[in-house]
Amino acid sequence: MLAVFFSLTIHAQNNRHNIIRCSGPIPEDFLPNKIKTVLLSNDVNKSAGKNKKLFTNFSLGNNYAIYNQLVSGYVIYGTPLNNYIDRVADKLLANDVELRKKIRFYVFESPQVNAFAFSNGIIFLNIGLFAQLKSEAQLAFVMSHEIAHYKQEHSFKAYTHQKTLSRKERKSFEESSLREELNFTRFSRIQEQDADEIGFNIFKESGYKLNEALGLLDVLSMSEYPFDSLRLQKDFLNGTYLKIPEKYFINGDVKAIAIDTNEIDSLRTHPAIPKRKQSITLKIGDQSQIGKSFLVSEEEFYKRRNECRYELSRLYMLDKDYVKSIYNCYLLMTQDPDNEYFYEVLVKSLYFLQINFNNSSKRDVVLSKYKAAGETARIHYMLSNMKTEELNVWCLRKSWEYHTKFPDNEEIFAFTKKITQHFKSEFAEDVSYFFPIKEYNDSLIQSFYVITQQEEIEEKKKNNKGRKSNKIRVVNRGSYAKYSMPDFITQKHFLDVYESLPLIAITEENEEEISPKKIQRVTQKPKKELDINKIIIADLTQISVDERKSEPILYRAMEKRTQLLMNSINICAQKNNLDVLLMLPEATKESDSIIFADRNIIIKYLDERRRYSDLDELYGVDYGDIKKLTEKYQTKYVGVIYNAGFILKKDWGGVAFEFLVSFFYPPLIPFTIYDAVKPDKESYLGFALFDVSNGKIVYIREQTFNTDSNPDLLKSELYNIFLKIKNK
Amino acid sequence: MRYILIFVCLFFLIEKIDAQVPGYMGKKMLVGIQYDYSPAFGSLIFGNFGDETTLMDLLLPSPKLGLGLKFVISDYKTFDLGYMNQTFNPARGGVGDYFQTADRISSTAHTFSFGLSRHAYHLAPIGLYLSQNFNVVSISSQYKMKGSNITRTVPSVLDFGYTIGIGSRRIFADKIAVDLAVNFNFYLIGFAQAVGFVDNSNSGISKEISNRSLGYNYFDNVVSLKLGAGYLF
């Protein structure tokens, strides 16, 4: 705890947390040509022999998958955190310089407590993992575990194992899928044990305290929960004039956190933690206190970990876990209460909760009281009791409080306005919805939620009739909602903003589901003329599949096709006089480091937008940065392109029928032969243009062709797309 | 003429015309040459395939060459105009009374066509398409009697036809279009001649040459493979 306090006070000196972003030159791994060709040839050369074909397939697939991960926008390089991890790696592999050269560590933006090792020596460490660690030695043990995976070529072994399994599967048709699954997980567990063992040896040689390995396993057993379990105070959730009813809170203790003590590991990929602990304890023997917990820098460790903990609030939001995000803010705010960053995160979490509630997807973000454990259960319980209207008012109240606290923060204000706009569109077109201050009475509001004795008896009777449970529901005779904003409705600023916000237009597709009253609000018709001069293309997904083959994905064809698409985009843009900035990893050069880092922000936003595909618009977690980028690149329009080419399995039934017909009418024979010989092809080209300032889809076009996506077809389609965007 | 063309376009236009007509990368007009190939069914079936003719005569008949113009009128449609020319001998190795004394018979068919191509995707003029055309063919013939140096001209005859075809077009270097299609043609008078509705006996040499040329034209166009190459504007 002292260490936590120490680290928090260091950080508290800075007013605002700076989000961890890639900086500096782009590492070689991220450059398109190097990863795909160089690594492949090395791998193939290394394994020249009877497994060559298998290894080629593995390398192609693996390099493609790694490259996709690297350019997903979630991988961070060039930060002090990366630097610190590299220094720890230097310590770990001080005795094996050759191995150190082969291994590259990157930070992965994910709140999950996890790390990954890839076959080409790239290792990802999640921010969520770093945030939970207690010491540098624990970090070192995780790293050595992942290094062992690389050293032992576990990915390739798992791949070949899978291949043999599938062959076996073909032979023994009757074997159940569960048995196969068990077989695979058992194989994976063996590898994990192997990695623990070899990793421990690396760890042991480095001079870190051996006992910390056991500490790490404790951390892993709690990986589902936030990094601390401070009791959540109601005041954090309540607001001035907004008293959330007592009935909505868990007043006693929350459900205890279930620590993973289960020793049965038959369906896990990793062995059960007690088992791992047992084997490591045996290895440690009586040397548990030998070594140091910190070899590089203790101060640096806490500084970096704290950075990660601050990041967690943001990352939980990206993971759609808004409750954890709020609680994480709460934990950190106990030490650093006035940090603007937390208020930004909180207002965003409120916005996301509001849109989920209003969109009837409450269950996606709130756990039932049976599932929730730990301190976050208090927030889950409160939210599960809240009605949509009540939640909206809670979000409105809190967001306006945050805005009042930081009136100059544009991001907080933007989200506050959005929350207000949603509230206005859903519940109250006019502020007269709210009661003035003279009608506010704390006891009156609480009385809405208190059940009288008579009601309680009646409720029990009612419940006993139908069901055996004697559970009492929370009875709402009224709501705090209308009493929650008495102070704001007298403020000019609030009234001005409320008045000025337009109602959210409802798209024509949803008209059937909404009330006639709301249909009248549909005033904003989609604009036909786009008249856009500049767009950014940030994502180009290309896939080529040959369904007839056992290795259906054609990696080399995909690379060629991507090049072709990029050339076609440039030609078509030029012809349409449209300024297109290709912000694609495939077009990245070493000198494009700033564009590449900017792309990461955009691509993450698009990923976030994809998770809310049913919404018309969405403000992203990185709203502020996106806004800056739109100003920097002088466009708010970002396009994504999907291109897929399929060679389908032959429909021999159809061919047989054609032969039958041509038997009676011989002139058709040549056509039938042509049909029988020609492979059946299908291709798809999709384009979507987003306005990233608000997430609206400006233009979307999808086409499926039952032919190969040949260059002229692609060009013609792209030209038409750009023509519509430009609208000359 | 312009109004007739517009009328024809509208007549065939089942779908509404898009306000924006993209064509291929903004290019809407395609002008090129075309070559129609079909085995010499006319010679074979019409009964004047003599003893001296070889298999190559059947496989490589006199060439049909012409010009084509295509104009994109909507996302899915092109308006097609075409002209084809073929010179052939409608009675080689003749069997009729007159032809035993006739020498060097030569017929020239001028085929004018107009119609629409319906493309599988909205990417006219490229990709897969189905076409339908109305044809007007004018056949003029000349002949020279044995032992005479005087060439006589047979008055031109007209025939009307309808063509449906399936084809595919690709573009190279953003300018050159290459076309491959299979056409099925039906000629009205030629059909009557081919099935023997018209009695050629004692109708005079000019009349018989005309009739035979119409029949020949019918058979030679029943199925044809079209190769085209054009330039996009």
Write the layout of secondary structure elements.
The complex is a heterodimer of chains A (728) and B (233).
Chain A: H1 2-12, H2 32-46, H3 52-70, E1 75-76, H4 80-92, H5 97-102, E2 104-108, E3 115-117, E4 122-126, H6 127-132, H7 136-151, H8 154-171, H9 177-206, H10 212-221, H11 234-237, H12 273-284, H13 298-318, H14 322-333, H15 340-358, H16 362-365, H17 376-385, H18 388-405, H19 410-426, H20 442-449, H21 453-466, H22 492-500, H23 516-519, E5 534-546, H24 555-576, E6 579-582, H25 593-611, H26 623-632, E7 637-648, H27 652-664, H28 669-677, E8 680-691, E9 696-705, H29 711-726
Parallel strand pairs in A: 2-4, 5-6, 5-7
Antiparallel strand pairs in A: 1-2, 3-4, 7-8, 8-9
Helix pairs in contact in A: 1-13, 2-3, 4-7, 7-9, 7-10, 8-9, 10-12, 13-14, 13-15, 14-15, 15-18, 15-19, 18-19, 24-29, 25-26, 27-28
Chain B: H1 2-12, E1 29-37, H2 41-45, H3 55-59, E2 64-72, E3 77-88, E4 102-119, E5 127-145, E6 151-172, E7 176-187, H4 188-194, H5 205-220, E8 223-232
Brief descriptors of the model:
A: alpha/beta, five-stranded mixed sheet, disordered N terminus, B: 233 residues, eight-stranded antiparallel β-barrel, 5 helices, elongated
Describe this structure in words.
- The complex is a heterodimer of chains A (728) and B (233).
- Chain A has helices at residues 2-12, 32-46, 52-70, 80-92, 97-102, 127-132, 136-151, 154-171, 177-206, 212-221, 234-237, 273-284, 298-318, 322-333, 340-358, 362-365, 376-385, 388-405, 410-426, 442-449, 453-466, 492-500, 516-519, 555-576, 593-611, 623-632, 652-664, 669-677, 711-726; strands at residues 75-76, 104-108, 115-117, 122-126, 534-546, 579-582, 637-648, 680-691, 696-705.
- Chain A has 29 helices and nine strands.
- Chain A has 728 residues and is α/β, with parallel strands linked by helices.
- The longest helix of chain A is centred in the N-terminal third of the chain and has 30 residues, at 177-206.
- In chain A, strand 5 (534-546), helix 24 (555-576) and strand 6 form a beta-alpha-beta unit.
- Helices cover 53% and strands 9% of the residues of chain A.
- With 233 residues, chain B is an alpha+beta fold.
- Chain B is 19% helix and 48% strand.
- Chain B is built from five helices and eight strands, in the order αβααββββββααβ.
- Chain B has helices at 2-12, 41-45, 55-59, 188-194, 205-220, and strands spanning 29-37, 64-72, 77-88, 102-119, 127-145, 151-172, 176-187, 223-232.
- In chain B, strands 1-2-3-4-5-6-7-8 form an eight-stranded antiparallel β-barrel.
- In chain B, helix 4 crosses helix 5.
- The longest helix of chain B is centred in the C-terminal third of the chain and has 16 residues, at 205-220.
- The two termini of chain B are 22 Å apart.
- Mean pLDDT of chain B is 81; it is low at 13-20.
- The A-B interface holds A 571-572, 575-576, 667, 703, 705-707, 710, 712-713, 715-717, 719-720, 723-724 and B 20, 22, 24-26, 75, 120-123, 126-128, 170-172, 174, 223.
